[in-house]
Amino acid sequence: MIRITIYQWVSRGLFERHKQIFLSQLTFRLMQKGNLDVPYTPQQMSFLINCPMSSAVPNPLKKWLPDKAWYAIQKLIELEGFEPFATNLSKDAPQRFQMWYNELDPEDRALPLEWRSLETQPFQKLLVVRCMRPDRVTTALNNFIRNTLPKGGDFVDCDAALSSIGVLEAAY
């Protein structure tokens, strides 16, 4: 209860574009302290924040996958557990990955092949979304927080239903 109250007070003083940054910092810090049961590694967290790229391998899927996405995937496969991802994407099931890529809300859809198992590992799925569909990271991160934090929806939707007058009245 105190966590949502403090978040509400702080978020009311932030610009809209900064609220998700603050909420992400809160969530990631709780994960780091072990207060949230989310399996991740420091390397994965660093990847999510920085999204490094490697242009060493040319993009074989230029027709539908942007070079930036392919270059990010080349660094993703250096993380433990993601080693076969580029091969699965480019050789094993490119059409199925293209269908996932073209979804309006890919963050809510299961990935092809054995990557479907990432539905039970939401943090790791965030990494794939970060690589392939960076335009959907904001929504994916909100979904992650909504499902990870206790009463996460209260944080994500904080004051969303109130008008500016309603916020002032609630604060008073």
Counted by DSSP, the helix tally is: 10
Note the gap between the termini: 18 Å
The count of β-strands is 0
Strand content: under 5%
What oligomeric state do these chains adopt?
single chain
Radius of gyration, in Å, reads 18 Å
Q: What's the rounded overall pLDDT mean?
A: 92
- The low-pLDDT segments are none
Structural class: mainly alpha
> Main sheet?
none
Give a structural overview:
With 172 residues, the protein is an all-alpha fold. It has a domain at 52-136. It is 58% helix and 0% strand. The protein is built from 10 helices and no strands. It has helices at 2-12, 16-32, 42-50, 67-76, 85-92, 94-101, 122-132, 137-148, 152-156, 164-171. α2 packs across α8 (137-148), α4 packs antiparallel against α7 (122-132) and α7 packs antiparallel against α8 (137-148). The longest helix is centred in the first third of the chain and has 17 residues, at 16-32. It is elongated and about 60 Å long. The two termini are 18 Å apart. The relative contact order is 0.13. The mean pLDDT is 92.
List the helices and strands and how they pair.
Elements: H1 2-12, H2 16-32, H3 42-50, H4 67-76, H5 85-92, H6 94-101, H7 122-132, H8 137-148, H9 152-156, H10 164-171
